[in-house]
Amino acid sequence: MKNLKTLVLAMVVILSVFTGNVFAEEAKASGYASVDVMSNYVWRGQKLSNGSVIQPSIGITYGSFDANFWANYDTDPDISEINETDLTLTYSLSMDKLNFAIGYIYYALDGTNDTQEIYFSIGYETFLSPALNVYYDYDEGDGYFVTASIGHAFELATDISLELGASASYNLGNKVMGTNDEGDKFSNFDTVKSFLQILSKGLFSMVFMVPN
Predict the structure, then answer these.
(1) CA–CA separation, 41 vs 53, rounded Å?
(2) What is the C-alpha separation between 176 and 43, in angstroms, rounded?
(3) Average pLDDT per run of 10 along the chain, which is 212 residues long?
């Protein structure tokens, strides 16, 4: 993995510049943290682990800005280490029921070259919460990846909900996404991916992925 010191410094500079703007309301800073235990690490339709993983996350928000560090710990006895650390910077805003976000992601990877993305997302607050995300990897991937999703959470009990969702994606020349079993550029555009997710509103959550 590449050294993240330069990236962290850039993050501080970016936040300093943007938060110097005048907001209609005084911005407030807050922090958050979580730990997810996943039956598998599935990223954009690709299965990246042979078993369960632990994924801690910590971040800070200031007004419309968010900075987040995320890591993946593979529990496979042959690996048993953190093999990915991501830094995500996001600026988001809302207009009525429309939610917009632009951001930057740095992927620090073990065993392969690091890479970087910028992205744009739009979502609509309604029953199925439809969302569209466009990612551009301008580094190792040199291409785009587009995802569309829907989902809804059902309250089961206090602080516990059942989340149902589906997503589809399409690869536009992003080499990081690799190829599928037939050797074609990876895409799960024709595969609807469903999952069940039992979430807790506290620090800890357990997630079970249902294979396609």
Answers:
(1) 6
(2) 12
(3) 54 53 63 90 82 93 94 90 95 94 95 94 94 96 92 80 81 77 53 42 48 44
